[in-house]
């Protein structure tokens, strides 16, 4: 597999460079926003939606970001061949912990990958309360997610569902989640800690979905489940917390997703 590639915005263009100073607050404090993107044979999926989401996140945080920079990021990514996984990071740049963000740093990261496996997932449940990411934003503070994912892998699962301190389902460690409850498709709301991912929105635009809090106790009544992320698209779940699930709806949506072009 080819090594990952990095580009930094130098004020006028993206230049190949992987040197981010340790004084950058993205490194020191995890003060960084990002969007993950999939590069497949047809180009960058949902590029405009990803760029709009990142621009909105920067605005929400009060970080000044010239839209031209994101446009240039999209143009650079469109020159890359897939399959590959990409991220656009916007860091807080130099400064102290309480200083305003005046010169954010923008970084492109592209990692060639094999196409995601079509096999359904085995998903467990993370038993400890989980604090949602700040305001539903995609930030660089991902250690807790990785620790929960590592714990799931140690038990033979591919992923795990995490719950906030109120006992409401947030998502999987690295993906949003949909479940089938009493014949209805349900997904956690942003207020529970879910992230407003582009594939999540793609599903909600094509199926009737109820967006509401989902309790731990309700998991025992789930008859179907699937995960969504930019890289895997729609990922059926065959087993949840040791129980076999129906996968017909998830497989139908998965087929739609990968034939959408």
CATH topology of the largest domain: D-amino Acid Aminotransferase, Chain A, domain 2
Give the count of structural domains: 2
Approximate helicity band: 10-25%
Ends apart, CA distance between termini:
26 Å
What percentage of the residues does DSSP assign to strands (E)? 25-35%
Q: Kindly provide the name of the CATH class of the largest domain.
A: Alpha Beta
- Count of discrete alpha- or pi-helical segments spanning 4 or more residues: 6
Find the CATH superfamily of the largest domain: D-amino Acid Aminotransferase, subunit A, domain 2
What report would you give on this structure?
The protein has 261 residues and is α+β, with helices and mostly antiparallel strands. It has two domains: 5-112, 2-Layer Sandwich (D-amino Acid Aminotransferase, Chain A, domain 1); 121-258, Alpha-Beta Barrel (D-amino Acid Aminotransferase, Chain A, domain 2). Helices cover 24% and strands 31% of the residues. The protein contains six helices and 15 strands. The protein has helices spanning 25-29, 47-61, 67-78, 143-154, 198-204, 248-258, and strands at residues 5-9, 14-16, 32-40, 43-44, 84-91, 105-112, 121-125, 159-163, 169-172, 176-181, 184-187, 209-211, 222-229, 233-240, 243-244. Strands 7, 8, 9, 10, 11, 12, 13, 14 and 15 form a nine-stranded mixed beta sheet that branches. Strands 2-1-6-5-3-4 form a six-stranded antiparallel beta sheet. A hairpin with a 5-residue loop joins strand 8 and strand 9 (169-172). Helix 2 packs antiparallel against helix 3. The longest helix is centred in the first third of the chain and has 15 residues, at 47-61. The chain is globular, with a radius of gyration of 19 Å. 38% of the residues are buried. The mean pLDDT is 93.
């Amino acid at each position: 597999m080819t090594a990952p590639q990095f580009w930094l915005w130098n004020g006028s263009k993206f230049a190949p460079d992987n040197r981010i100073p340790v004084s950058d607050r993205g490194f020191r404090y995890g003060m960084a926003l990002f969007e993950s993107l999939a590069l497949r044979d047809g180009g960058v999926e949902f590029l405009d939606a990803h760029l709009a989401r990142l621009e909105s996140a920067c605005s929400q945080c009060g970080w000044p970001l010239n839209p031209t920079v994101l446009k240039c990021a999209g143009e650079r990514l469109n020159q890359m061949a897939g399959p590959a996984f990409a991220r656009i990071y916007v860091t807080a740049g130099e400064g102290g912990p309480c200083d305003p963000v005046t010169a954010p740093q923008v970084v492109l990261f592209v990692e060639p990958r094999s196409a995601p496996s079509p096999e359904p997932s085995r998903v467990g449940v993370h038993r400890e309360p989980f604090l949602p990411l700040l305001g539903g934003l995609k930030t660089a503070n991902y250690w807790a997610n990785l620790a929960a994912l590592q714990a799931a892998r140690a038990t033979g699962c591919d992923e795990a569902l995490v719950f906030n301190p109120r006992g409401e389902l947030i998502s999987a460690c690295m993906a949003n989640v949909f479940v089938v409850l009493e014949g209805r498709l349900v997904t956690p709301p942003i207020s529970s800690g879910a992230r407003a991912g582009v594939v999540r929105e793609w599903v909600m635009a094509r199926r009737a979905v109820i967006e509401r809090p989902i309790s731990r106790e309700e998991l025992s009544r789930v008859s179907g489940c699937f995960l969504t992320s930019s890289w895997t698209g729609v990922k059926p779940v065959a087993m949840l917390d040791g129980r076999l699930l129906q996968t017909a709806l998830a497989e139908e949506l998965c087929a739609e997703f990968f034939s959408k072009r």
